[in-house]
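Pasting as-is:
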Amino acid sequence: MLYRKFRNDDPPHLFELCRRAEMGRGAARPDSIHAFEVAVYSLPYFDPEGLIIAEDDGKVVGFVHAGFGFSEDLNSLDYSQGVICWLVVSADQHRSGIGKELIQRAEQYLLDRGAKTLQAGQSRYCDPFYFGLYGGARCSGFLKSDEKAEPFLLSVGYEPVDETDVFQRDLTNTRDPMNIKLMNIRRKTELVVAEQPDEATKWWLTHFGNIESMYFSLVEKSSKTRIASLTILGLDHFIGRWGERVIGLVDVQVIPSHRGQGYGTTLVVESLRRLKSDFITRAEVHVSKQHASALKAIGTAGFKQIDTAIVYRKAIPEVN
């Protein structure tokens, strides 16, 4: 078995490997290699050393991809945050030790470049690659529906540390919620649509700049203050997996002074109402179990939980 870094002739082989792998409902089935070009290889921080290939007699049988989280201002990488973004091994090579060897090599790559933490499964702002290709609306960890992920990660020393629930809403027959509180908010605010935020960060641009997306803001009419915002993207790479066209709601934010008052629900409902059509039948959003107010807002907006994503962490041995 040969283990090596990524080469320019690898994309077709990795594409076919991913299409054959069975990773559950959360793995997209794109029609072409271009989807991986946009979400992986063309990104300005892509490092061939971090994409490690397992090759058996000239045939690519597995790979692991390691990367880093973003800085606090979301404009550069934070090399102290190491993350295993994706691991795929051919079905006929399972339990052969390839996955374990790939993980160990990925961990060494991250440690050699200054990682102070090691996590498996991407999370909010620690998600450099595969946006729109794994997880659905965003990369929030390895999904429970990806049944082989957790047993393997536990076997190589990772432990679950955070969970994010995945919600979907049927847009074809779900009625919009309405009460006095939401009606008052609608009267005081307006929905503003733009191609991108006024001051788009490098995180936003690398994730949404080259894909179909729209930026929605809920703005107070009297003061023109932006109270809440979100980005909506098309999840067309999942049509082959889910059999319908779904949109993802990402990075839903409400300013601290207005949280828990219905503004998040109003933003979500009004944004979906604007986008309703015969072609879009479902919407998806991910919410951390730690965000009680966001979970309540999503439930009020008519979303139902369908899956859970888990982030895993591994302790780094101390060096004497």
